[in-house]
Specification:
single chain, mainly alpha, Methane Monooxygenase Hydroxylase, Chain G, domain 1, three-stranded antiparallel beta sheet, globular, Peptidase M41 domain-containing protein, ATP-dependent peptidase activity, Peptidase_M41-like
Length: 192
Amino acid sequence: MIATPAHEIPLDIRRKAVAVHEAGHALVALLHKRDVTGAALHPPHGLSGETRFEGASELVLDLNAKADRHFIEDAIVILLAGQIAEAHYWKKLASLYIPRIDSHRTDDAEIQQLRSHFALGSEQQAMFMGYCTDKASRIVLHPNAQAAIADIATRLSDTLTIDRPALDEILARHDVGEGKLKFARHPWERRI
């Protein structure tokens, strides 16, 4: 498979991919009760973006505290959600484009930094990341979540920004919220 050079992919298609990526982050962050204030695509073309959080500053975490370990796990799931949402978007367009996705570099660096807090062997590390990927996938690929991500991404792609009230309205309209998406427990959850 030969990757499609970025300049051969229309700007609106690439902007939509970034919007879907940020929509995945925002949706999963909201479901994990993070203080999301909105999301934005960076001008002029919206080919990079960010999900914005209230009071986003350097955190001091205690790995002896179960809540802090879960905070790190949830942060990894939120970061993976953007990647999974974007990959799903490109999968739908696979007959037209096979992009070289480099929008995940900053997410991957953050995930690596967060993973470094846990002293896990390589096998445990693989199990943990498999669990986090599975958790993010189950949320992002749920039909209701997919509909909400599509709406969030359309708004982001069209206006380059979306605020918290608009995010909340979209999630409510698509029946995506705390306790509304039900999933079976993953075996890793019993270890945490």
